[in-house]
Amino acid sequence: MYAIFLTCRVVRNNCSDIQSDQISTILIKLIKMRYTVIKITIISTKGGVGKTTLTANLGGILADAGYKVLLIDADPQPTLSSYYPLQEAAAHGITHLITEATTENVISRTVIGNLDIVISDDSNGTLRDWIRDAVDGRVRLKYVLDQLQSKYDFVLIDTQGATGPLQDAAACAGDFMLSPIPPEILSAKEFVRGTVSMIQRLQPMALMNAPIGHLFGVIYKMDHTKDAKLIAAELRKQSFMPAKGSISIMNTVIPNSVVFRDAATQRIPVHRAKSATNAISAKDTMIAFTKELIPNLPDFESEV
Ligand SMILES: Nc1ncnc2c1ncn2[C@@H]1O[C@H](COP(=O)(O)OP(=O)(O)OP(=O)(O)O)[C@@H](O)[C@H]1O
Ligand SMILES: [Mg+2]
Hints:
Layout: H1 2-13, H2 20-32, E1 38-42, H3 51-64, E2 69-74, E3 86-88, H4 94-99, E4 108-110, E5 115-118, H5 127-133, H6 137-144, E6 154-159, H7 165-173, E7 176-181, H8 185-202, E8 215-222, H9 226-238, E9 247-249, E10 254-255, H10 258-266, H11 282-293, H12 300-303
Helix pairs in contact: 1-2, 6-7
The chain binds adenosine-5'-triphosphate and magnesium ion.
């Protein structure tokens, strides 16, 4: 069993060499057998782009489809921690998870079935200094999450919109990364500049057996303006070129819609929310997005 898990790790870490479809089929088989957990880090060097909303809603739809999901709030501003009401609060949060290297007493249960969370308890931002100064700081989160093997199908890590040791640790912990990109010129430029340089800076982590995973950019809060369409088209053409294939832009686009804010106010996953207009079905969008990000999920659509 352990050999299968190790093989899976190797496959994931070398995903550029193998067809991503084959990888996802192998991974889904292993998930079904509870041999592996897929870890996704939601990251962006820019703030306010939609990371927390996307993390909460991806977690919500996977949980409603019957998968066991753990959210980790790695942002000192604990927005994800209060996104969904808690049914059972753990004694500790991310600080204990990382500094004590244990998953005991750090996992809170949300009111959403199958959806747990490690809350952020780092309001002074001291964790970043601890990670910077610890010998194994940047790989600690990656290895502590191995303790969750067989307990979860997915772990989603939300981060602060900046760069720093905590974001580095989160990036190293993910099998792959996800980055929402609003199609306006400042966000698009920052994505190309900031994200590419972050990936390049973290390349040496491969020497510590913590290679950086592929990054999926998703065009986020898309509106109907001509400018947004031009920028989205340009991002698709240009953004991944300097990153030598380590970034790709997803086909599914997430619209700018009030239903996302309404769902956040109601503290429910957006696919459960009723849209005021028929212009967009948040459920259809989230299904398309999840299916593209994690292809071949068995029974996904029928269960949501
Ligand atoms: N698809 C969407 N359509 C419209 N508004 C949205 C959408 N997604 C998120 N928002 C709103 O955009 C704002 C920023 O979203 P969010 O907090 O998820 O961003 P963030 O990247 O996590 O920010 P930060 O860097 O501060 O953590 C919030 O007010 C949220 O309700
Ligand atoms: Mg956030």
